[in-house]
């Protein structure tokens, strides 16, 4: 899933320096041969930038132009640094230092601290959250877990932008940054945090950079010693450099210009952490004689995917857009990107799961498929849909919905309120179930309006808002439901997702997907308000959202699907619109979202029919009430309607499922979920058709498991599994 090419695990080390250049395209070769003076490599997504710069270093070393110990290559993640070191070893340049900014600075700080300051370097604070919490308490500010994370992030941002506590409120006021709390309050916490560190003789990771900068500025002898050691610098992902990192780089360089930077302004998506593309965009101004090489040959994605990526950036505005790269695919043609409009979010998730299942059946490994969304709160409906489809999945960069801290805390609070009943004063003015839930969750951070900005507070609010919406849907489906009924529903929904994490389809946010790639990518939830996100107000914030979508598009090698839903729940008002970023790109988007495009222009509707299928309400088979919850719709009855489930049959099905899961080495939900087994035990199907009509079965599971299930329903025991789920 990385940008590495699919080579052998142990390639042969090139015999000569010239052999290092074999296989490079003309532009990559130009990078490799540009070994003196400032060099700026503008490298688009999938163009082999890591290959170019590692071959550049290796060629210089193997040709005797560069001494391995004199080269320092820096990047932003330990994974990227490790990959770079590995490639350099394979090319016969194993003595080169490849590190993150923090790692390189820490080594220098540890070595020179006794000489520059005296004594031992203060202890490095691995996690600053606890100290920030203490600082907040001393300032008489109460922060919950997620607010604590956000304030900690603000302190980190202030330090990498070289903003001192006293200046923080003014700097925030001048910028378009949305602070998670009152800036004056954060400034006080920041100042107290710094005081506590001094009192306890500890430093944090940002201090590593700040102190190294301070020593190099004050001690010219130490700066000269480092400059004698390192003669040549390479910086990867240069668009993500912060002002503090740039200051350190300048001090490492001194008055020399043996610097090679690599980046792509169109992939700047971390400005909220202090990253800025300005250093990349200004490189030629600062270094007028720089060699500039553009890498635009895309080896990752098909021409169809690249065409969409180019079109997306073609509509961009702003300074970064002026420097965009027009990619040229080097791969054979593939399928056109698919655009699919669904009636509602559950239909979108179910349709996505069906397409994924079909790809896996066609030979695409599950690990080469990803579902990417804007915020982590969107994951739950896809977790459920993939589980129902029997597709294993893994979450990257996020906890499963019911394992998130705020969701667990909300469950505890709701359970306590349900036990207390009307003895809980919180519920005095709450007339119905949704009002009760809103009242309880308001103590956990939910408000009727989303918080400004992004970050943990927003993520927490999104999770709690999802619970509020669930309560509203639950109350509509079961008018007489109590808080205790809702708690039981939450417990059951959580229990259905307790399977361990397995290797499978990746579910990830767009931010977490940076630097990765897959054969097939599904970009979901592409509606106004989600892409761009509602709190992207300024032109630059909107443009960063566009770049985020561009990053998502360029993760796909072959298959790319973009989808959106017109309403949140089945039967809801179709008030949503597809993302503005797709206008002019998807066929038929001239009349964005209008009924006149239905069935035309290459846009698929619903499950892929020629026109959008209108989904009517799903009715309870017992009382006729409208069903809105996925579990109730699977059972085709309200949760509190009488069940005629055969308990013995249900237990036999569970035992059979456990045996199948062991045979297949997969979690039980990949065979059938609990709700599907309950539906089978209630209806006791006798034929393939009756079994296939139960939600969660489907054609593939019918082929694989149908005979066993029908045999068990008829009083038999079924048989052991003999292969993987097809």
Annotate the secondary structure layout:
Elements: H1 17-20, H2 26-33, E1 39-43, H3 49-62, E2 71-75, H4 78-90, E3 97-100, H5 101-116, E4 123-124, H6 129-138, H7 145-160, H8 168-174, H9 183-200, E5 202-203, H10 205-218, H11 220-229, E6 232-235, H12 243-253, E7 259-263, H13 278-281, H14 283-286, E8 291-295, E9 297-298, H15 303-314, H16 319-322, E10 328-329, E11 338-344, H17 345-361, E12 369-373, H18 379-388, E13 393-396, H19 405-420, H20 433-441, H21 456-477, H22 483-495, E14 505-509, E15 518-523, H23 539-553, E16 556-567, E17 604-605, E18 618-619, E19 626-627, H24 630-635, H25 647-664, H26 674-683, H27 688-692, H28 698-713
Parallel strand pairs: 1-7, 1-8, 2-3, 2-6, 4-5, 6-7, 9-10, 11-16, 11-17, 12-14, 12-15, 13-14, 15-16
Antiparallel strand pairs: 18-19
Low-confidence stretches: 1-10, 496-502, 591-602, 607-615, 720-726
> How confident is the prediction overall: mean pLDDT?
83
Give the % helix: 40-55%
What structural category characterises the helix and strand content? alpha/beta
Distance between the termini: 24 Å
Instruction: Give the beta-strand count.
Output: 19
- The outline comes out as globular
Within the largest sheet, what's the order of strands? 13-14-12-15-16-11-17
Rounded Rg: 28 Å
Largest sheet: 7 strands, parallel
Q: Tally the helices: what do you get?
A: 28
% residues in beta strands = 5-15%
